[in-house]
Amino acid sequence: MKRQYPDWQGPRNRPLEAVRRHLTRVFARAGVFAAGVGLLAAGMASPCCAQSKSPADSIAEYRKMLADDNPAELFEAKGEELWKKARGPKNISLEACDLGKGPGQVAGAFVSLPRYFADTGRVQDLESRLLTCMQVLQGFDAEQIAATPFGKAEQVSLASLVAWIAAQSRGLHFDVPQGRTEERRMYELGKQIFFYRAGPYDFACATCHGDDGKRIRLQELPRLTANPGDGVGFAAWPAYRLSTGELWGMQRRINDCFRQQRFPYPGFGSEVTIALGVYMGVNARGAESIAPALKR
Amino acid sequence: MHNRMICSAAFLLTVGLMTSCANQATKGDADIRSNLDGAMRTSFRTEGIARVERLQQDATNAACSKAQGAPLAEEVSRSIEADNLKSVRMPSDGRFLGNWKEGERLAQNGRGMTWTDSSDQPNANGGNCYNCHQLDKAEVSYGTLGPSLYGYGRLHGVTDPTDPGARAVLENTWTKLYNAKALNACSGMPRFGQAGILDESQLKDLMALLLDPSSPVNQ
Amino acid sequence: MADPMKIRAQAADGKTTVRVLMAHEMETGQRKDPAGKIIPAWYIQQVSAQLNGAIVLTAQWGPSISKNPFLQFTVRGGKAGDRVAISWIDNSGERRSDEATVS
To answer: Which residue of A28, A43, A71, B20 lies most exposed, with the fewest beta carbons within 10 A?
Structure first.
C-alpha cells in the first residue's frame, strides 16, 4: 500500500495502522519502562471503537497529550540549523533573507504572509519567498526545487525551514496585509479559485470547506470562507502528519487538496496556490497561529 | 469602485449613459475572468490521468462556481437541471438492482480519478460514498457532507423493488446517482454516471445497497 | 550521522521526568515501494538512558515502535543540573547519543 497518500481506504485499514503507531507513543508516555511496549500496545483497546466519547473528542484528547512533544520539533531544530548554515553554490546562510519584516527578521513574519514584495514585484507566500532567498542569496536553482517531489532533497529542507519559521510566530495572530492593490487582487483571485468547480467530480474547495459543521468520514472540515478560529484551518498549517510521519507546509497541503479534488497538478509556489493562501489567510485574520501543529 | 458610483448616478439621469455603464460592468467581469483563466492556465499541469483539460468548466460548473454558494435564480436552476436530465441513461436491460455486497464495497472505496491512480476506467474507481454519507449503521466512520442514507429503501416505502409502485423511487434514485445535477442544479455530489466515474453495473450495485430490502442499509 | 534527539528533563518532588523525541524512520520491513520491492527494515533496537553516568533505563525495541519515536519515563531522584544521556543503536548498527541537563 503506498503510504505517501493516505486515502479513504475504509476504516478497517487506515486507522488500524495509525492506531498501531499512536498506541506505541501513548503507552510510552504513561511513564513505564519502554521494554515490552510493542506487546502491551497490541493489547490496548482501539480508540476508534470507543463509543463513550465522540471520535473527534478522542482524537482531540490524544493530540493534547502529545502537544508538548510534537515531532514537528525535530523539523524545527533542523530548520533553525538550515537558516543559519552557509549552503548552496554561493555558500551563504539565509540569515539575510527578507520574509516581509526586513532582512533576517523572522519573529512575526509567518503571520503576515502571503504579502507583496517589492524586489520580486509580486505577492509571495512563505515557501515561494524561501525559494527566492535560496536562489538569490545561496545560488540554488529555485525552479529545480519547485519541480522536486515533496519529501525529497531540498523539499525536505524547505519543510524544515517552514516549521522553524512558523514556530517563531507561535501564539501570534494572523495579520495578512491587504494594503496594496496586488494583495487585494490576489484575495479576489483566491476567492474565485476557492469556488471553482471542475474535474470529473465537479469539486471546488468550497464543496468541502464552504459550510460549518461538516466532516469527511471522521475528519472535521473547517469552513474557510470565514474565520474558522484559533489554530484551525489556515492557522494550523504547517503541521506534522502522524499518519505519514512527515511535515507538511501549506503548499503540500493545497497540493493534496487539489489531488483529492481530482484536479490536475498545481505547480509548487504557483499563482493559484499563493492566491488561495491570501484568501484563507485574510479570512483567518485575528486567529492565533499554533503552527507547526499536529495532525492525523 | 469609483467608476461604478458614477455609473449609478448617470443611470438615473440619462438613458444614453446606460450603454457605457453596461460596458464598464462587462469589462470588469471580463477582466476578472481573464485573470482567473490566465492564473489557472499557468498554475496547473497534467499529471498522470489528471489532465489540464479537466479545468474546463461546462455550463453547470460555471454557473454554480460564479454563484459562490448563493442560490441560483429559479429559472436558471430549472434550465440546468433539465440540461443534465438529458444525459441520464436508464439501465440498458431495464433492471435497476445489482448486488448490495458489491455496493457496500464500492461505497467504502474512496479511490479513483486522482493523479496517483493509474487508470481512469470505472473498474478502478470506488463510489466514495462513505466520505459524505452515512449508509450501513454499523459503519461509524461516515461523513456529513451529504444527508444520511441509512434506511433509504425502507423510508422511501420500497419493500419489493420489483413492484411497479416502486418504479418511481427506483428511477429517481438512479437519476440521482447517474447525474445528481438533474435534480439539484448546484448539488455537491459528483455526476457518477454522466462523468464516466462508475459504469452501469457499479451503479446497480449501489442501487441494491440503497434499495434491496436485505441490504444492511434497510435493517 | 542521524539527526539529534530532543531531550527534556525536569526534576520535581524527588523525581525526574525525562521526555525524548528521536528522529528515526523506524521502517518495519513490511512496506513495499511503488515498484513493489520490500523497503528494508530499519529500526532502533536498543535504547539506554543514563543519569549522571549511571544507567537508569534500557529498552529493546522492535518494528512496532512508531516513526520519530517519543519516549517518556520517570526516575527516582535527580536534581537540577544533573546530566541525562540517551543513546540508541539501530539494526544497521547506526548509533546516536545526546545529552541534556535536568532543569
So the answer is: A43
CB count within 10 Å of CB A185 equals 15
Indicate yes or no: CB of B68 within 8 angstroms of CB of A206.
yes
The CA–CA distances, whole Å, from B15 to B20, B24, B27, B65, C36 equal 10, 15, 19, 33, 72
Number of Cβ within a 10 Å radius of residue B189: 21
Judge: C68–A3 Cβ closer than 8 Å, yes or no. Answer: no
Give me the CATH code for the A72-295 domain, please: 1.10.760.10
Say whether residue A244 is in contact with chain B using an 8 A CB cutoff.
no
Cell of B46: 497534467
List chain A pLDDT tens, one digit each, 296 residues: 344 444 433 334 344 444 455 545 544 444 333 333 333 333 333 444 444 566 666 666 666 665 667 899 999 999 999 999 999 999 999 999 999 999 999 999 999 999 999 999 999 999 999 999 999 999 999 999 999 999 999 999 999 999 999 999 999 999 999 999 999 999 999 999 999 999 999 999 999 999 999 999 999 999 999 998 888 889 999 999 988 889 999 999 999 999 999 999 999 999 999 999 999 999 999 999 999 999 88
Contact B40 A193 (CB under 8 A): yes
Map out the domains of chain C with their CATH numbers.
6-101 (2.60.40.10)
A208 is catalytic: no
Q: What is the pTM of this model?
A: 0.83
